Amino acid sequence: MVSGDVYALMAGLLGAVASSAAKLSLGADYLKDMCDTGMESWTRGDRPWTRGDRPWTLREGEKTPCDWLHIPLRLLCGGLLFTCNAVMWTLFSRALRRCPSSARATVTTAASNFVCSAVLGRLIFGETHAALWWVGISLTLSGLLVLHRSAPQTASQDHSKKDT
């Protein structure tokens, strides 16, 4: 049986993937730029969209495959966004059910999301984060470790405290 912490970690990862898919589908021309870069490195020689030794130097009226390919890629990323969000909420609800406390599931999911967002942002978009961002993440992870190490209180202890 999978623990609640694993569900929370997977929910955080899927949340980061969903936010990256949203940025790709709704953001600036990331997909078209990635396509252009990929095609530029792939196309060398006599291709219809090259002239001479300079790829992507187009004659008037010429189109590259990336002029239309980014549209279905955006739609695919939009579908990925909705799918990842649906699965993420399912996993998060399982984490809430299986973790000893809702705070533990929430903090684990948030920390996982932050770290995975940083890694995906670096890999996909080339983003870098300031030192203050990493200090904040370190504090969040430290709080997560404190939550994981603390012993959960049982219901009988809570009732005995209320009676006194």
Structure in words:
The chain is mostly helical and 164 residues long. It has one domain (4-151). 74% of the residues lie in helices and 2% in strands. The chain has 6 helices and 2 strands, in the order ααββαααα. The chain has helices at 4-26, 30-42, 66-98, 102-125, 131-149, 155-163, and strands at residues 50-51, 54-55. The chain has a two-stranded antiparallel sheet. Strand 1 and strand 2 form a beta hairpin. Helix 1 packs antiparallel against helix 3 (66-98), helix 2 packs across helix 3 and helix 4 runs antiparallel to helix 5 (131-149). The radius of gyration is 23 Å and the shape is elongated. The mean pLDDT is 80.
Summary of the model, kept short:
It contains six helices and two strands. The chain is an all-alpha fold. A two-stranded antiparallel ribbon has the order 1-2.
